[in-house]
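step: validate -> pass
step: tokenize input -> pass
step: predict -> running
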Amino acid sequence: MASRGGPRAAGTDGSDFQHRERVASHYQMSVTLKSEIKKLIYAHVGIWLLLLAQVCVGHLKLLPHDRVAMPYQWEYPYLLSILPSLLGLLSFPRNNISYLVLSMISTGLFSVAPLIYGAMEMFPMAQQLYRHGKAYRFIFGFSAVSVMYLVVVVAAQVHGWQLYYSKKLLDSWFTSTQEKKKK
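step: predict -> pass
step: emit ->
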């Protein structure tokens, strides 16, 4: 039995730890990847809340349209992107592979696809802004196109890393499942 400040066992200098059991690397990786994915999900929830606020303010007319522009069409399907994140969180407690796979597939459908559509939808307005310096939609005095492109870029990075880490986590879980079946 180990004690931090107490006496050491007779006949040892503390360097005989090589024989002790260690946590398998795929379990360590699983814990690390779950932590990283949770951070990315929290970042995604922050982006999602900002877009939800813009949609609510735009439709409920809480602020004039010269302060907060009406949402672009891609923002509505992007609001469904919270579902894959919830599925991802639900997959963590019991290492549920099927929930994680569903989360990854639906992230592509509900998160990445609306972002690609949004980049294409806003491209003509961004082109007009940068060629002629004219913007017709604003969010608190800033060009709505510029602000929303910034949101698209950040969200694309968040979802890209989320998919990357989810794939690595899936591989880690699959490795641990295969090792259990071999025994």
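step: describe -> Residues 144-182 form the longest helix (39 residues).
step: cleanup -> pass
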